[in-house]
């Protein structure tokens, strides 16, 4: 599990990596996981950019990524490609 200080440092690095219209919009931490929320109009390109920060931070291999429309409830899974269900605890 990632400690809170490392999460905050990664969140800052991620915000630095994402430029343009992408906004790192906060996080939550607990239940043996952490989530970082990003507002974007281009989820796939933003994910590709964010993965550079993930790789540099050497985060655990359990990274998962998905997006949904701001008015939607169903997630579209981006990573890992074979993930069947995405949920936020």
Provide the descriptors you would attach to this structure in a database record:
89 residues, alpha+beta, single chain, globular
Written overview of the protein:
With about 90 residues, this protein is of the alpha+beta class. The protein has one domain. Helices cover about 35% and strands about 25% of the residues. It has helices at about 5-15, 45-55, and strands spanning about 25-30, 35-40, 65, 75-80. It has a two-stranded antiparallel ribbon. A hairpin with a 2-residue loop joins strand 1 and strand 2 (about 35-40). The longest helix has 15 residues, at about 45-55. It starts with a helix and ends in a 10-residue tail after the last strand.
Rounded Rg: 12 Å
Q: How many domains in all?
A: 1
Mean pLDDT: 87
Largest sheet: 2 strands, antiparallel
Order of helices and strands: HEEHEE
- Fraction in helix: 25-40%
Q: DSSP strand (E) fraction?
A: 15-25%
Summarize this, please?
Helix 1 crosses helix 2 (43-57).
Topology overview:
Elements: H1 4-17, E1 23-30, E2 33-39, H2 43-57, E3 65-67, E4 76-79
Antiparallel strand pairs: 1-2, 3-4
